[in-house]
């Protein structure tokens, strides 16, 4: 019955979808437990606030139909993206966003779309949609505790904890295409969707997994390439932050290069000195770091995270943690700087006027 429901879902979605473009853990985020079990370690994040002291164009299409299509087909339909960024997983990220109401990202490798992520108000994926209640989506898709995938002589079983089934369940769409659904634990509504190939899911490794056979390995990048990857994630986090803020009626934030430098240096310091805290090894906190770069502000706050597979996962992690969510949606802030260094993420918020 579940396979029938999924098949019906895909057929319904293909018939019409409208969207408007306008852990912290300081060692590896995964380990082998026994001969055939891979366990993802806990991703951690932390937030802190310091005291005050100083023409919507509709496009018709289907999110599933894009998987496997080429870059020329994408640009012919949607035009040139706002950004093209290298990623940790070998594909190029193409971002379409108005920075306010929607955010859609395509992952392209070897001229083939391998993944699509989408969030925002003007996104409809009939018969499910962004903003739909958890139980309503679950009735249509069902969220199992185990999702399997097989290829040749290899087999993989993704093991989802109860909390994961509640906030980011995994659904098998076809033999080799999967969908992650990101739910907001505070509103109990669907907040984002990621569709990706099985190979990318194995590269991301977002869930505990039992497997027999081989695992794909991430590409190895030099320092310049890694810096490009991190810079791309910074800007994507910035755009997603504003889309989330707009969804909840908050003012949009402006990008600040000096604040970004403060955030980046803190992420880099945590990674290189093997710690995870709002305070550096020298005892300096956000207040001192902002002062070093002569950033003048009325109030400021900070979110940090580590060991998330990418910017989307970190953003939904922050939104599902009360303190981080409060910082992301705080009315007072006017500017944002995001700093990413490898798997360490820092958001610095400031109020300037």
UniProtKB/TrEMBL annotation:
This is Serine protease. InterPro entries: CAP_assoc, CAP_dom, CAP_sf. Gene3D superfamilies: CAP. Pfam families: CAP, CAP_assoc_N. It comes from the Bacteria. Residues 239-349 form the SCP domain. Residues 67-207 form the CAP-associated domain. It comes from Lentibacillus cibarius.
């Amino acid at each position: 019955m579940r396979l029938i429901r999924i098949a019906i879902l895909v057929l319904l979605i293909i018939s019409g979808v409208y969207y408007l473009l306008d852990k912290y853990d300081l060692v590896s985020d995964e380990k082998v437990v026994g001969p055939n079990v891979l366990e993802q370690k806990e991703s951690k994040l932390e937030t802190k606030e310091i005291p005050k002291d100083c023409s919507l164009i509709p496009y018709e299409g289907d999110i599933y139909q894009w998987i496997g299509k080429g870059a020329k087909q994408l640009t012919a339909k949607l035009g040139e993206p706002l950004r093209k960024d290298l990623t940790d997983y070998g594909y190029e990220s193409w971002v379409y966003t108005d920075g306010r109401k929607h955010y859609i990202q395509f992952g392209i490798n070897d001229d083939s779309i391998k993944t699509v992520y989408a969030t925002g108000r003007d996104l409809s994926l009939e018969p499910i949609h962004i903003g739909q209640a958890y139980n309503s989506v679950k009735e249509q898709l069902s969220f199992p505790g185990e999702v399997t995938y097989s290829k040749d002589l290899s087999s993989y079983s993704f093991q989802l904890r109860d909390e994961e089934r509640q906030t980011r369940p995994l659904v098998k769409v076809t033999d080799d295409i999967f969908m992650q659904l990101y739910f907001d634990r505070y509103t109990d509504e669907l907040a984002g969707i990621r569709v990706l190939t099985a190979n990318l899911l194995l590269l991301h490794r977002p869930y505990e997994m039992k497997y027999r056979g081989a695992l794909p390995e991430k590409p190895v990048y030099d320092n310049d390439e890694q810096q490009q990857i991190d810079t791309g994630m910074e800007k994507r986090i910035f755009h997603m932050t504003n889309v989330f803020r707009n969804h909840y009626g908050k003012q949009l934030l402006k990008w600040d290069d000096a604040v970004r430098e403060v955030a980046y240096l803190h992420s880099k310091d945590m990674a290189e000195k093997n710690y995870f805290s709002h305070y550096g090894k020298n005892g300096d906190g956000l207040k001192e770091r902002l002062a070093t770069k002569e950033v003048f502000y009325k109030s400021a706050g900070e979110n940090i995270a580590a060991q998330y597979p990418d910017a989307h996962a970190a953003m939904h992690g922050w939104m599902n943690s009360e303190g981080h969510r409060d910082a992301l949606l705080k009315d007072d802030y006017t500017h944002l700087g995001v700093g990413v260094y490898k798997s360490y993420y820092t958001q610095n918020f400031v109020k300037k006027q």
